[in-house]
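quick one
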Amino acid sequence: MEKIETLIREGRAKIRTGDAFYNPHMRFCRDVSSCAFKSLEEEFRENVCDGFSASGIRGIRYYLEGGAGKVDFVDANASACGIIRKNCRSNKIKDCKVFKEDVALLLLRNKYDFVELDPFGSPLDFLYPAMRAFRKRGILSVTATDTAVLCGAHRNACIRNYFSHPLRSEYFNEMGIRILLRAIAQYASSYDFGITPLFSLSKRHYFKTFVFVERSAQKAFESAVKCESISHCFNCLHREIGIREACPVCKKKMTRAGPIWIGEIHDLGFLRRMEQSCEELEEINAMGDSKVKETIQRMEKEVGFPPWHFNLHALSSKQKKSSPKIEEFLGKVRKKGFRAERTHFEDNGFKTDAGIKVLRKIV
Ligand SMILES: C[S@@+](CC[C@H](N)C(=O)[O-])C[C@H]1O[C@@H](n2cnc3c(N)ncnc32)[C@H](O)[C@@H]1O
Ligand SMILES: [Zn+2]
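structure w/ S-adenosylmethionine:
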């Protein structure tokens, strides 16, 4: 007997998943991505590759909610391709093609303005073909679910695959996303593309980022030099960019980590456009989770700070004190003349330009 399948509504799409992979827990990621796609200039929404399509949900949403022009769907799995075709028909996606092949091969053969990479695990294998698929400018959308590697649970794998030392500090997730961005910057710059991250999201077990790439030897150079190692002191929590043996605060040995992307992980103007798109999508009930806007607003506050954040619990326990209320604490830091803002990375996290000595006195 044929399996009776329920219709899944996500955003403006109504799909049936059949045997194709579909993870409802990734809806938040797709909501944020759809919102970001809608915020792109038209030139980047024209010729889209939905790599690793599975049910086709991302590309279908980019078309229905974000105004995508022509969408190429690609999945190596034959039954997934059948399902994508059905979903494209039922959602009235006019200008689309479905390819049953390896994403890498399609990217080496065709040119795109927007490339979606949503693989199982690491996107590393597909960064080189993605760079080959851009002409002068484009948008690369990357999901990474190999967070155990990027965040330091599998340290050796990170060194081996990403050529970078992860850090099991309070800001391991920010380190992870910066190791991923550094890998993207490296692949891009070796093809003379510079990168500008538009937004970078860390959530549950995944990272998601949209990166603007532009072919220019100068921009590629500027991106390449935004990748550096950092030094972290586990004794007093001081951290700094560059490699230093002894901590300048407590004189203990520092731990070296990275190289990481030390540039901005978001573009403030783009995040503001995303906020606007989010409101428009909420009006048509396309956003599943009210937290999308809140997350974008937290990201906006992260711009203009050093490439790490602090955790209030970790800071207070270093001082053998109980944790104060975060807003009260940040208020005190600001009163001393420093900037201090909460982060989207964790509820107890904050970014500041104040140094560790100041923070430990205030907490
Ligand atoms: C994580 S799922 C994609 C999820 C989908 N984008 C979504 O949002 O629901 C990965 C998909 O990529 C396909 N796949 C894995 N390796 C591939 C490759 N090298 N080329 C093309 N498709 C591949 C799998 O068949 C699977 O459908
Ligand atoms: Zn120290």
